Amino acid sequence: MDIQAIDPRDTTWEQDHGRYRVYFWDIPAATAHEYEVLGEVDIDEILTWVTEYAARRGWAYTIYVATTDGGSPGLIRLAGVQGDPFAAS
Fold it and tell me: C-alpha distances in angstroms, 37 versus 1, 19, 88?
């Protein structure tokens, strides 16, 4: 991990609430269950829900924030499985 000080004036906008995508990975069944979380929700609330939901089912998960880069939609991973969860299956 590389940590460095920044100048907070290097951005032109910020938003309090994002669009989040949650992917639950049922690895033995090679199945994914995808959800979008909208509204005034904090990442801590999402983490709590996701970890409990996944644990009850024995699933892994990945949480993303949905964004656009030059007008093209994309996802940035925030927590959970990195890469293809089915690659080792």
Answer: 29, 6, 28
- The encoded tokens of residue 58 equal 């024995």
CB 81 within 8 A of CB 60: yes
Burial class (CB in 10 A: 0-12, 13-18, 19+), 62: buried
- pTM, two decimals, is 0.87
Taking Cα atoms as reference points, which of 78, 69, 30, 75 lies closest to residue 50? 78
Residue entry with tokens 């609330």: 45
Q: Is residue 41 within a helix (H) or strand (E), and if so which, with residue range? A: none
Residue in 43, 4, 3, 1 with CA at minimum distance from that of residue 21 = 43
Per-residue pLDDT at 45: 95
Instruction: Return the C-alpha torsion angle 4, 72, 51, 88, nearest 10.
Output: -90
